[in-house]
## 1
Amino acid sequence: MAHLTPFQKRRQRVRTALRLRAAGRPRLSVHRSGRHIYAQVIDDAQGLTLAAASTLDKNVRGSTGATAAAAAEVGKRVAEAAKAAGVTQVVFDRGGFLFHGRIKALADAAREGGLEF
């Protein structure tokens, strides 16, 4: 496979993002930084955040750092919040991050918490 130019990589990432937003289901969007991980369930049709969780939440903040265990806790909490908001099916938006490590731990915990994607 040929190497992609920065323009081609960005174009590919934008096309993927647009395809996810047009899926017709709420989107479980994940962002990961060096210290924290954030997850939101977003309804793109209405432009509303239906549920959110992160390692900055008071219940999670002191116990764990930027680890897979913390990501799993965030996944479990966002699944609980989404179910409370009446959402059971979502589209997983990994935000361009590779599906391994903390992102995978969050996704697996959200699945165990009752979200389908």
Note: The helical segments are 6-21, 58-61, 68-84, 102-112.
## 2
Amino acid sequence: MEIKNVVVIGGGTMGNGIVHVFSQNDYKVTLIDVKQEFIDRALAAIGKNMDRQVKKEIITQDQKSAALANITTSTNTDDAAGADLVIEAIFENLEVKLDLFKKLDEITKPDVILASNTSSLPITKLASATKRPDKVIGMHFMNPVPLMKLVEIISGLATDDETIRTTQELAVKMGKTPVPANDSPGFVANRILLPMINEAVYVLYEGVGKAKDIDEIMKLGMNHPMGPLALADLIGLDTCLAILEVLHKGLGDSKYRACPLLRKYVDAGWLGRKTGRGFYAY
């Protein structure tokens, strides 16, 4: 099946980044979210990020205009009915995602691929909400989507070879590098990354170092481009906590237990860059 029309559901940081990349590669893409204010915020972020690309001479003003013209929006999930591919990019809540996949299965054509950008939840479980588990797959883009090359490709138990091949080829057309991972909590990227971030939060919690010093040590000593606490702020502390909870529940190992300080920040609404306050003030 040739993919021409893409629907992305969820206009948050990941969703708007995915829309950005598809539109820039000349795909017609529809962004769907529950409220117009979320869509407006997503379009503003896309425009701002494209302006940055124009300034850096990565794209031209004409290319920006053409990309934006490829984007349509809706607040009605039923508008996903005509898609060739749907990518779910809503928040990390299994029950909400299951409900969404069940509805998408009902309204889209039977051969349409239903992909999830989940960073930790089981693809096999999401596929179980549909009558097409062979057409359900994980496409875990990295943040920020326009810059990061990796797309983790996660197959569920029933995902067929054609779906895997189509998804991998599509990622390459987006200028990305698809890398396979098995359907296990956190897959590869976050099973390794989140315990490191969590340990950095414990180091802060226990007073071993200040936030800026912890990050500086990891940047200079381990050659990381960004410290773990600054990275957590970029990802979103609520997202970090949600992934750790999936790891803890799914793998049953206490080493994935979220640091109490991380929980406290999330309870306070200090979620990182998106709220203006996390381990740093923005």
Note: Residues 36-55 form the longest helix (20 residues).
## 3
Amino acid sequence: MKKAIVIGCPGAGKSCFSKKLRDKTGIVLYHLDNIWHLPDKTNISKEEFDQRLAAILKTESWILDGNYSRTMEERIKACDTVFLLDYPLDVCLAGARERVGVKRDDLPWLERELDPEFEQWIIDFPTKELPQIYRLLYANKKKRKIVVFHSRKEAEEFLNGL
């Protein structure tokens, strides 16, 4: 594994898993939220995001944490390993709620509340986003390793085995 992406529902723990993966492998980690978002809760342009992403994808090794469906196919095609955290909705909602008020290094601001629109996106994720993710993974499965975790315990056991 030299180029990996970590995807899944918000609140699943993609960033936590990615950090542990980085610590086990020594591979440079990029949080897409830190690339896209600015500290004032605005974002860079799509063009600038795409340029920064393209520069990362050209490097020798990386871990990319985040969904960003607009660029997911490009990242899947560029990686050798995909980690999908496909956890139950209640786990993801709890994870999103637990991080409110907690300073994180994967987001350039402190979340003071769970935004209702974001919460709805999490609720809709299993029916609106996940089927498309599985279609992309199935279409690109021959040239990369795809690892799907259905629980945090499975993910921890994988990391402990590295």
Note: The chain has eight helices and five strands.
